């Protein structure tokens, strides 16, 4: 049973590594693209695409700390995932086994003697039962940490989407039926498409030849952040179950 748990962990940790790296890259791309365009605050650095706000004259970004956290926040759990992923992958791929042979003799009803020989492979480097308890503690902390990360990012994503829809109505001088269309029917992806082409600044001439798909970047970070949370929760469940199963061996 321990082998099955380790095999599951050997797959889950690389998935966490992949989703965490995607979060760091995509959020960093969006931040780098908009950090000068949205930084219109006179007294603070507000060049973050997250937690943007609509003002009377322009659309400003959120405080730069949000983008720092979105880009670098998953490095801490990523390091744990890399170390533990290498550990379990090595044990699964390079684990040593030995053959065990058993022989028994059976007397047939005719009086003949039949010798039966069976061979099986046993792994003799089983993981210590004392491993699972601290592993469960670490994974539970990482699950809570990534949950906080995903919640903060989701809130920033939602605020920017809502605030830019307000700014879009002002820019289009929307009235009548166009108001519920933009506020209630357009997805955030469509809202960010408007943002890619309508938000201008002194650096617009430089940006127009290098536009990015802001909605795709933000959605990839959003989805991968919640996938990371799910993977850490699954790992926590695996570790807790194994810790309970090996409880008698630790006495």
What Rg is obtained from the alpha carbons, in whole angstroms? 27 Å
Tell me the count of domains: 1
Which percent range describes the beta-strand content? 5-15%
What integer is the average pLDDT?
Answer: 84
- Profile the largest sheet: 2 strands, antiparallel
Q: What structural class do you assign from the helix and strand content? A: alpha+beta
Helices and strands, in order, run as HEEHHEEHHHHH
Strand order of the largest sheet: 1-2
The count of helical stretches stands at 8
Shape: elongated
Q: Helical amount among residues, as a percent range? A: 55-70%
End-to-end distance: 19 Å
Tally the beta strands. Answer: 4
What are the segments in which pLDDT stays under 50 over at least 5 consecutive residues?
A: none
Describe this structure in words.
The chain is an alpha+beta fold. It has one domain. It contains eight helices and four strands, in the order αββααββααααα. The strands form two sheets. The chain has a two-stranded antiparallel sheet. The protein has a two-stranded antiparallel ribbon with strand order 3-4. A hairpin with a 4-residue loop joins strand 1 and strand 2. The chain is elongated and about 100 Å long. It starts with a helix and ends in a 6-residue tail after the last helix. The model has no long low-confidence stretch (mean pLDDT 84). Keywords: Membrane, Transmembrane, Transmembrane helix.
Search tags:
251 residues; two-stranded antiparallel ribbon; alpha+beta; 4 strands
């Amino acid at each position: 049973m321990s082998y099955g748990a380790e095999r599951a962990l050997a797959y889950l940790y690389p998935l966490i590594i992949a989703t965490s790296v995607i979060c760091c890259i995509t959020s960093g791309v969006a931040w780098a693209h908009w950090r000068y365009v949205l930084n219109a605050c006179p007294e603070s650095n507000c060049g973050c695409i997250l937690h943007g706000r609509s003002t009377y004259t322009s659309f400003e970004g959120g405080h730069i700390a949000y983008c720092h956290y979105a880009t670098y926040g998953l490095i801490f759990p990523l390091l744990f995932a890399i170390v533990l992923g290498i550990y379990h992958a090595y044990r699964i791929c390079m684990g040593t086994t030995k053959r065990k042979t058993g022989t028994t003799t059976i007397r047939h009803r005719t009086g003949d003697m039949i010798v039966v020989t069976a061979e099986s492979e046993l792994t003799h480097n089983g993981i210590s039962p004392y491993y699972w308890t601290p592993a469960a503690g670490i994974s539970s902390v990482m699950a809570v940490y990534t949950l906080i990360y995903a919640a903060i990012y989701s809130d920033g994503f939602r605020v920017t989407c809502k605030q830019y829809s307000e700014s879009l109505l002002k820019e289009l001088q929307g009235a009548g039926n166009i108001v519920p269309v933009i506020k209630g029917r357009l997805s955030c992806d469509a809202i960010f498409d408007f943002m890619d082409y309508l938000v201008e600044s002194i650096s617009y001439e430089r940006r127009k030849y290098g536009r990015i798909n802001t909605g795709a970047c933000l959605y990839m970070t959003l989805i991968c952040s919640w996938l990371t949370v799910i993977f850490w929760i699954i790992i926590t469940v695996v570790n807790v179950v194994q810790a309970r199963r090996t409880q008698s061996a630790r006495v």
